[in-house]
Amino acid sequence: MPKPRKGNPLDGIVLIDKPLGLSSNIALQKTKRIFQAQKAGHTGSLDPLATGVLPICFGEATKVSAFLLSSDKRYVTTAQLGVTRTTGDLEGDIVENRDVPALDETYIESILKQFRGDIEQTPPMYSALKHEGVPLYKLARQGITIERKLRTVTIYNITLLAFTADTITLDVRCSKGTYIRTLLEDIGEAMGCGSHLNDLRRTEVTPFTGQPIYTLEELEALAEKGEINDTLLPIDSAIPHYPRIDLVEEEAIRLRNGLRVEREDVPEAEGIRLYYPDGRFLGIGQRHESGTLAGKRLMRTD
Asked: Which stretches of the chain score pLDDT less than 50?
């Protein structure tokens, strides 16, 4: 018989404020320990030099983590102008120093407007993308450069928050797959001086806009008071944009048994939120090619 898992069988999502210097995986493990959870996973890594919103999924919520990977993000970031680095951020060696043009709001806006909407990016060598199973950053550390395909990403908005003689601080709202380091490097090249990322904070992950985020210290304090579970968001909070279907008991049983359900109201959608008659979340469904309702990612039932 398999050994029983250690920890609490929690189901839900908590938004942590990842601290500077920790990898996303270490932040995940620390959060899992604070909650004493059996199973946990994070959605969308943040580099150790970045801070901010990192959703942690517990238990059955890990089944919706893949849907969060494709969500839009928002960042506040500062670019150091006039200096390019091998990694595009503070960790890399200096490649070149160049003079920074005289900055004012009008000039900066004339540059930023070139980067709104759909743009193309070349993923950086210092990234977790893999080439033949090997992360690019490992190849980069060996001095190996691999040709990378251009990617189209969307910058929904980019706003100037502040600037000095050689820095700009921006608020960026963007689609999945956007490399902020690359965006800042490209902005620096458009200015003719180059740049690198000096600071990065993720402020939002769709669809959790406006939800509270917690530092690890705050979570530890709540755990000591027995209030830690109050921080958990329900599993279906990750997919509010999916259409909803409320099932009768017989339909729920059929879906749980791997069978399809005949209904007239099954929409064409990436996913469909399914609910028991009492309002509990059953999981994610989909429209079958026959027009019937089928299960796609259902939650465990005890």
From this structure: 1
Under 8 Å between Cβ of 45 and 179: no
Side-chain half-sphere exposure of 94, counting CA atoms within 13 A: 7
- Position 3 scores a pLDDT of 54
Active site residue 47: yes
Contact 208, 235 (CB under 8 A): no
Predicted pLDDT of residue 1: 45
From the list 57, 48, 19, the residue with the least C-alpha distance to 220 is 19
Q: Checking phi first, is residue 143 left (phi over 0); if not, alpha (psi -120 to 50) or beta? A: left
pLDDT value of residue 302: 62
Other residues' Cβ atoms within 10 Å of the Cβ of residue 39 = 17
Choosing among 3.90.660.10, 3.40.1570.10, 1.10.10.10, 3.30.2350.10, the CATH entry for 12-71+207-236 is 3.30.2350.10
Catalytic option among 47, 186, 199, 236: 47
Paired strand residues for 80: 167, 196
Q: What is the pLDDT of residue 141?
A: 77
Query: On the CB side of 197, how many CA atoms lie within 13 Å of its CA?
Result: 24
- Furthest-apart CA atoms within the chain: distance in Å: 71
Domain 73-205 belongs to what architecture? 2-Layer Sandwich (3.30)
The amino acid sitting at 67 is: F
Whether 52 contacts 203, CB under 8 Å = yes
What pLDDT shows up at residue 43?
83
